[in-house]
Specification:
Layout lengths: L1 E6 L7 H13 L5 E6 L1 H4 L6 H18 L6 E5 L5 H10 L4 H5 L2 H8 L6 H4 L1 H10 L5 E3 L5 H18 L7 E3 L29 H9 L19 H9 L2 H13 L4 H15 L1 H11 L2 H29 L4
Parallel strand pairs: 1-2, 2-3, 4-5
Helix pairs in contact: 3-14, 4-8, 4-15, 8-9, 10-13, 11-12, 11-13
Bound molecules: adenosine-5'-diphosphate and tryptophan.
């Protein structure tokens, strides 16, 4: 199976990114042909600081590699190193109805936040479709917020195939039910744009402070909490801790006797230990940035070798050549 996913370098990666996209992508290595990239063109729709983009791009590269992306098993590159994707985006854009793009949640959300929309933001889903279709992708591991984008990608692939003849593979999303929407520290979806994230590789003190600062209700430690499964710390524990441990902690909270302060300390310990081996690998990688850059450049060459024949197929199908 060919598996592909991308993450924008628009901020520092968090637990939602890890559980929604990175973990399933990394787990797919070995049995699948894996293509993972840093969506730097996409980040231009929301970030206009060149230095920050460079820093975040490096951060995303280090995070993926530290968390287990293995360049011997996966192709890993920067989106902008394979600019063929822009040409395909143009071709797909000519088949994308305005109405379809106007209905995109991501676009509507940004407008609702008062952001003045630019053309790039509007055609964001078309570029994303090009990312996916350019590699004959079959499976796309993502969080639930990307479901609609995947539906648009499928629509565009089908429409192109109907208009110009069989050209593209129609991909499927892979959305894990248990971590489809990881909650943020304020209870909304965890997202770089809401400032409610738990960073994967934050400083110890800062991570502890964020976790200890999670708002809870005013019930005393002794009181039983029949709604323990709705507790944010329990929900996060379920995604980072061993299932038995998370279930036992939930039971302790439900029964009464476990206070919120202690619960948050438990959550911190679990988060911190979960990423301990990755933290060591990340520090090693950060001390050899030439090596990281070489991985990305080699990835771009390998990605391009796959993309070129697909683009050629698309050009031929629509009479460009
Ligand atoms: P953000 O919302 O923080 O900007 P991105 O849009 O860059 O995150 O998402 C990158 C990947 O991480 C996507 O596959 C997205 O679905 C996934 N993802 C982001 N936030 C979450 C979350 N809270 N729960 C599950 N998956 C998430
Ligand atoms: N839109 C995705 C996000 O914000 C990032 C992305 C860009 C992507 N291209 C992709 C994800 C292709 C999967 C496949 O999360």
């Amino acid at each position: 199976m060919r598996t592909l996913t991308g993450i924008q370098p628009s901020g520092i990666l968090h637990l939602g990114n890890y559980l929604g996209a990175m973990h399933p992508a990394i787990a797919a290595q070995g049995d699948n042909e894996c293509f993972y990239f840093i969506a730097d063109y996409h980040s231009m729709t929301s970030l206009t600081d060149a230095k920050l983009r460079r820093d975040y791009t490096l951060g995303v590269a280090l995070d993926w590699l530290a968390c287990g992306l293995d360049p011997a098993k996966s192709v890993f590159w920067r989106q902008s190193d394979v600019p063929e994707v822009c040409e395909l985006s143009w071709m797909l854009g000519t088949l994308a109805p305005m109405g379809l793009l106007e209905r995109a949640h991501s676009y509507k959300d940004k407008i609702a936040q008062g952001i003045a929309p630019n053309l790039g933001l509007f055609v964001y889903p078309v570029l994303m479709a090009a990312d996916i279709l350019l590699f004959d992708t079959q499976k796309v591991p993502v969080g639930r917020d990307q479901k609609q984008h995947l539906e648009m990608t499928r629509d565009l692939a089908i429409k192109f195939n109907q208009t110009y003849g069989e050209t593209f593979v129609v991909p499927e999303p892979v959305i894990r039910e248990e971590s489809a929407v990881v909650p943020g520290l304020d209870g909304r979806k965890m997202s770089k744009s809401y400032g409610n994230t738990l960073e994967l590789f934050g400083e110890e003190k800062a991570v502890r402070k964020k976790i200890m600062g999670i708002q809870m209700d005013s019930r005393t430690p002794a009181e039983p909490k029949p709604d323990a499964d709705k507790n944010l710390a329990i929900q996060l524990l379920k995604v980072v801790a061993a299932p038995d441990f998370a279930a036992a902690t939930e039971e302790r909270l439900r029964a009464g006797g476990l206070g919120y302060g202690d619960l948050k300390k438990i959550l911190f310990e679990q988060v911190w230990t979960h990423f301990a081996p990755a933290r060591v690998r990340r520090a090693e990688l950060a001390s050899n940035l030439d090596h990281v850059d070489a991985i990305l450049r080699d990835g771009a060459l390998r990605a391009r070798a796959v993309a070129e024949p697909v683009l050629h197929r698309a050009r031929t199908a629509c009479g460009l050549r």
